[in-house]
């Protein structure tokens, strides 16, 4: 009996000692984790909390802490990119507004010098002034449109629409302008309607931007094309031209706000850099995607918008 009690007491002492050891180890691990997290937060590093432990609950805690740190670092990175993007946008917008305003100011100063101008010169200046003012108004409207589209509460109603029919009407609307720019028009639109869930006004705005872009930058190629096709459960429209093409270094940035292709394709024209951004956002609002394919060696630039096809 005494032996049994002695063995029992010994086992209890061992269990208590082992639990005390585990508690001490866990406390050390948690304290080490706390110090590492504090150090990471203080120095704003991208490190992870690495602590060697055989304690499963502590390992699970480490996993969740590192997930939280990953999320925090992602939020900070997104914030930094957004802040940098806003800074560049404000800088570019300021430049894009300052340039036409300076020209407008120059024209008005010349108009004030009436004695130095012939009636014909005055009329020419008035025409240039009117063009610059309209260009400035267009730039501001595009900027405010983009701000509205990018707002969280922006929403467009979607319904069943025909990609084929809207593409036909858009090309018809621009046909005279295409021909006047010496562009041969090549259209491939199937007779059978290609339906998807979209918005007619938004699609017309997208096509207007892409066709205008092709005229602005691709007229030197002499050919404009638009193709509507079906592709594995999707409907797609390709708007292409045979212009100079876009260098690979520019291709990933063409949809950025206020990023222009003037140096990439046609330096004789100056765009606002907002049209393609608006196009991309409107395409995404209709659950579609847009991509660019361009080759300067083959003189071929294609913008492709793709949407989920409706078969009912």
Which helices and strands appear, and what pairs or packs with what?
Layout (H helix, E strand, L loop, with lengths): L1 H42 L12 H57 L6 H32 L8 E4 H18 L3 E5 L6 E4 L1 H19 L4 E9 L2 E8 L6 H4 L23 H11 L3 E7 L4 E11 L2
Parallel strand pairs: 2-4
Antiparallel strand pairs: 1-3, 3-7, 4-5, 5-7, 6-7
Helix pairs in contact: 2-3, 3-7, 4-5, 5-7
Please explain how this structure is put together:
The chain folds into three domains: 2-77, no CATH class; 89-150, Helix Hairpins; 161-310, 2-Layer Sandwich (Heat Shock Protein 90), CATH 3.30.565.10. By secondary structure, the protein is of the alpha+beta class. The protein is built from seven helices and seven strands; from the N terminus they run αααβαββαββααββ. Strands 1, 2, 3, 4, 5, 6 and 7 form a seven-stranded mixed beta sheet that branches. Helices cover 59% and strands 15% of the residues. The protein is elongated.
- Name the helicity range: 55-70%
Mean pLDDT: 80
User: Looking at the structure, what is the overall shape?
Assistant: elongated
What name does the CATH topology of the largest domain carry? Answer: Heat Shock Protein 90
What is the distance, rounded to the nearest whole angstrom, between the alpha carbons of the first and last residues? 87 Å
Biggest β-sheet description: 7 strands, mixed
Structural class category: alpha+beta
The number of domains is: 3
**Fourth-level CATH superfamily of the largest domain:** Histidine kinase-like ATPase, C-terminal domain
| Assembly type | single chain
Proportion of residues in β-strands = 15-25%
Name the poorly predicted regions: 262-270
């Amino acid at each position: 009996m005494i032996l049994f009690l002695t063995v029992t007491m010994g086992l209890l002492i061992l269990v208590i000692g082992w639990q005390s050891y585990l508690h001490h180890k866990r406390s050390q691990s948690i304290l080490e984790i706390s110090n590492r997290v504090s150090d990471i937060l203080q120095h704003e590093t991208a490190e992870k909390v690495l602590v060697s432990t055989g304690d499963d609950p502590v390992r699970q805690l480490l996993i969740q802490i590192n997930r939280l740190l990953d999320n925090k670092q992602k939020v900070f990175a997104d914030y930094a990119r957004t802040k940098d993007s806003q800074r560049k946008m404000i800088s570019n917008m300021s430049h894009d507004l300052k340039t036409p305003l300076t020209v407008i100011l120059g024209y008005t100063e010349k108009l004030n010098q009436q004695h130095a101008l012939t009636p014909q010169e005055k009329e020419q200046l008035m025409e240039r002034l009117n063009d610059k003012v309209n260009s400035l108004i267009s730039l501001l409207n595009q900027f405010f449109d983009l701000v509205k589209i990018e707002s969280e509460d922006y929403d467009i109603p979607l319904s069943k629409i025909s990609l084929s029919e809207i593409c036909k009407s858009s090309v018809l609307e621009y046909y005279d302008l295409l021909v006047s720019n010496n562009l041969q028009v090549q259209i491939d639109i199937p007779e059978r309607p290609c339906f998807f869930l979209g918005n007619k006004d938004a699609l017309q705005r997208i096509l207007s931007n892409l066709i205008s872009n092709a005229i602005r930058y691709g007229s030197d190629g002499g050919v404009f094309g638009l193709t509507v096709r079906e592709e594995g459960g999707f409907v797609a429209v390709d708007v292409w031209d045979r212009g100079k093409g876009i260098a690979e270094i520019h291709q990933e940035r063409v949809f950025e706000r206020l990023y222009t292709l003037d140096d990439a394709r046609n330096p004789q024209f100056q765009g606002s850099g907002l049209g393609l951004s608006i196009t991309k956002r409107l395409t995404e609002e209709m659950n579609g995607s847009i991509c660019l394919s361009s080759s300067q060696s083959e003189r071929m630039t294609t913008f492709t918008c793709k949407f989920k096809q409706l078969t009912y």
